[in-house]
Amino acid sequence: VSAAARTPVVPQADLESFQAHLNQSTRILALVGAGLSAASGLPTFRGAGGLWRTHEATQLATPEAFGRDPALVWQFYSYRRHMALKAKPNLAHYALAELARKKEGFLTLSQNVDGLSPRAQHPAGQLKLLHGSLFDVKCSGFFCDHVERNNYIDPIVPALEIPTDESDPTTTEAVQARELDISDHKVPLPEIDLDHLPLCPKCMKGLLRPGVVWFGEMLPRDVMRDISDWIKAAEQIDLIMVIGTSAKVYPAAGYVDAARSKGARVAVINMDRNDEPASGLYKGDWFFEGDAAQIMPEILR
Ligand code: BV8
Q1: Which residue of 26, 73, 79, 89 sits 20 to 30 Å from the alpha carbon of 238, by its own alpha carbon?
Q2: CA–CA distances in Å: residue 162 to residues 49, 122, 158
Q3: How far is it, in rounded angstroms, from Cα 298 to Cα 95?
Q4: Among 106, 127, 99, 124, which Cα is nearest to 28's?
């Protein structure tokens, strides 16, 4: 192992006190967000180059947006599927999967839809996907319950082909360029005919949509129930690790306070000490500043 890889990324005292607590912990939660996958090359939402910097999330990640312009919303998600399929899990994903194998009382709550934790062989029984997955598609029709796993076709339909320069076809300037027809993309961005969007094979009426939870939508009922059963069953929660998330989206962020109310000590792993989320999260017991892909293997060793 190269010397650089061995250089500790966290202060020794913090590392020792954290690991002492971790070793005697049995009920452990992790709430993870986009920062966990940053080292895998996937843009976060808020950070520099983040998805929300180039889009209004509420313009694209809502049922209303899909109703208004399903082609644009599908282009946004097709681009993210494409990026996520090309990405590889990083050492943080593997470190969490490893901890789950060692500690059956450890549960990861993931806000990420990129499929990287499952691909890192994180034990499925100890991973809850709060916001669904880019690789599930479901019928957008109210009366149809069709859901299918689709993590092998990219693009999901030919009309959603990513521009050859692999740029995001839904950035504000790309959309404006298309509207103003002054596209500076090498490949003019296609106008997409709704007939060319994926159609539900079951009812043959509703469009298929990405199997993610949009703003204003409930989180999957079974996921919420499993998590609340897990929290209720715990006499006390020993530790919650809050990894690569600005913890601004609810009800996901609410699990930090739920863990605290059961006695959990809080370890925050984040690139940016100043990304102070509303929930005052950083009054945690440990704050490990830096890239999750470097820190997680170190502190969970
Ligand atoms: C619901 C899937 C109600 C789609 C997502 C006021 C109070 C409480 C709630 C609300 C409110 N106003 C509105 C609401 C509701 C809303 C909400 O919370 N809004 C926020 C904006 C205030 N919530 C909802 O709508 C939820 N549903 O409330 O339903 C309801 C009730 C009854 C009946 C019907 C409905 C549903 C929310 C789910 C939205 N879907 N994702 C998609 O992905 O496209 S949210 C999406 O954004 C992510 O999943 C994630 O949750 C969130 C982004 O957060 P992060 O993952 O934290 O990413 P971010 O970029 O913000 O931060 C990255 C962090 O990592 C940063 O801190 C950075 O410093 C750090 N970092 C960067 N690099 C690294 C790093 N750290 C370590 N290493 C690195 N290398």
Answers
A1: 89
A2: 19, 30, 9
A3: 9
A4: 106
Quick one: tokens of 112? 């990420």
138: closest CA among 72, 207, 70? 207
Give the distance (Å) from ligand 1 centre to CA of residue 284.
20
Task: Give the pLDDT confidence of 75-92 residue by residue, as tens digits.
Answer: 999 999 999 999 999 999
Catalytic choice (21, 55, 131, 196): 131
- Ligand 1 contacts (CB < 6 A) are 33-35, 38-39, 44-47, 50, 61, 111, 113, 131, 212-218, 244-246, 248-250, 252, 269-272, 275, 291-292
CA neighbor of 210 nearest in space, from 75, 111, 55: 75
162's CB contacts (< 8 A; 6+ apart) are 78, 79, 82, 155, 169
Whether 245 and 33 have beta carbons less than 8 Å apart is answered as yes
What does the CA dihedral 179, 183, 185, 189 come to, rounded to 10 degrees?
40
Q: Does residue 186 have a pLDDT over 70?
A: no
ipTM of the complex: 0.95
Structural contact between residues 55 and 77, judged by C-beta atoms closer than 8 angstroms: no
Determine the distance separating the centroid of ligand 1 and the alpha carbon of 85, expressed in angstroms: 22
Residue labelled with tokens 């298309």: 178
- Within 8 A by CB and 6+ apart from 92, the residues are 36, 39, 243, 244, 292, 293, 295, 296, 297
- Ligand 1 atom closest to 269 (CA): 77
Q: Is 131 a catalytic residue?
A: yes
Binding-site residue positions: 139, 144, 200, 203
pLDDT tens digits for 160-172?
A: 998 888 888 888 7
DSSP state for residue 6 in the 8-state scheme? H
Ligand 1 centroid to residue 111 C-alpha, Å: 7
